[in-house]
Each structure stands twice: as structure tokens, then as C-alpha cells.
């Protein structure tokens, strides 16, 4: 008499355990990820509740004037490259910053500012914005910028040439996404990788810096002092001398900066 299919295991205790163990493992892993994301969100929520964010001013009334941090071109004949970052407008500032690059050639009477602005797409223009004769250290909708990197001296003239080449090579002039990218920080990180002499250490609040052009999973770190693994900016790991050890989960970056003896926390930024 032939046995029916499955008769050998039917009613045998533990026959379904492998499937049950796998399901419980998946649920446990998902629960761990959810818990980690919840913990990482405490940083942005803390900044939103207790940080110095302007949640009341309309964007049309916000300040965009100079903060006096950049060297005066009239008294600075040498070439200068600076990178700034400031909290993004309104509640989004609890999560991230907007970054831009300012350059001044030798004897130039003004700075040229390179940045990506997403609302340019509404008019069918490139998101890559080039501004001349404006301040390099402007307020970003009432948020005061922080100087992230600076290079000055005669050898910087050649760096400015390469910055301009990198700006022209940016692969997403017609695309913008605040999360996970490509955005203004994707642009700044792209330029920094092309000009590693800047040694630009973008903070964990520069959401979009982990969005690697072309969807490649591996690239150099923006500082040029290490490597970066990333899955479309949603998950990844950076190991570098300047950035230290930094993990990224859904755009929330956290880690340890051994070079500066600081923690890197989502929303908060660097904490000595």
C-alpha cells in the first residue's frame, strides 16, 4: 500500500519548526530595525523640540544676507575655496542641512557660489545653480551657516579649476529628491570626491551625501580619506580617516569620529 504524500511527516511533532523558526527570525530582525530607527529619530525630534529652528517665518521674509564669515575679497588677493552648511528650511532642519561651495580666484572681486536648488525644476531649469557677486556665507532662510571646509593659498587656483570641472560633470542636473537623494548634499559630496584635497568631512546631517551617482554601491568617502558603501542612500557604511566610522540607515547616519573624538548623531550632528 502506497503512502500518501506527506504522510511520513503528518502529525510528527516539530515537522514545521524550520519554517516557524525562519518566520520568527524575520520578525525579530524587522523588530530590531524598527527599534533602531525609532532610537535614531530621537535626535531629529530633540532638535525639533529644543533646537534653534525658525518654525514661524515665511520663506519670503527669511534672511539670506551675509554672516561675515567669508574673507573680504577686497582684502584677500589669494584664491579661496569654502564649503558651508546650514539647517534646511522649517521643520526639515531638524533632520538635515543644505550645503554649498564658494570659490574666489586670485584677485577676483567676488565669490562664485555653486549649489543645487530643487525648486529650479519647476521652471524647467537645471538644479545646479551658479551665483556670482553674491555673498559666500549667506543665511539660509534664517539658518546661520557653518564653515565645513576652507582652502586658501596660491595652490588653490588649480583646485578651483577642478571644482568647476566637477560641477559641470554632476550627473543629476535635472533630478532632485530631498530624501534620500540626489539633492544639494549629493552634489557637494560629488564635487568633494572629485577634489579630495578639500578633505571635506560632511556631517551626518548632510542627508543625501550617501547617494552615490549611478547607483554604484562603492565609492570613496567625500573626504577622500576612506571608502563608502551605500545602497541608494538608504543603507550603508563609511570608513574613513576624516569621517571615522559612520553607518547610514534610511538616511539617518550615526557613528564615531575617531579623528575628532566625537560622536556622529542623526539630527544633532557632531557631538564632542
Your description of this structure?
The protein has about 270 residues and is an alpha+beta fold. It has one domain. About 20% of the residues lie in helices and about 25% in strands. The strands form two sheets. It has a seven-stranded antiparallel β-sheet, with no helix packed on it. Strands 4-3-2-1-5 form a five-stranded antiparallel β-sheet. It is globular. The protein starts with 16 loop residues before the first helix and ends with a strand. About 40% of the residues are buried. The model has no long low-confidence stretch (mean pLDDT about 90).
Short description:
The protein is α+β, with helices and mostly antiparallel strands and 272 residues long.
Which regions have little confidence, pLDDT < 50, spanning 5+ residues? none
User: What is the rounded Rg?
Assistant: 23 Å
> Approximately how much helix is present in the residues?
10-25%
**How many helices does DSSP assign?**
4
- The overall strand count is 12
How would you state the average pLDDT, rounded?
Answer: 92
Oligomer: single chain
**Shape estimate:** globular
- Element order, helices and strands? HHEEEEEHHEEEEEEE
Proportion of beta-strand residues = 25-35%
- Taken together, the total number of domains comes to 1
Main beta-sheet annotation:
7 strands, antiparallel
The neighbouring-strand order within the major sheet is 6-7-8-9-10-11-12
Alpha-beta content class? alpha+beta
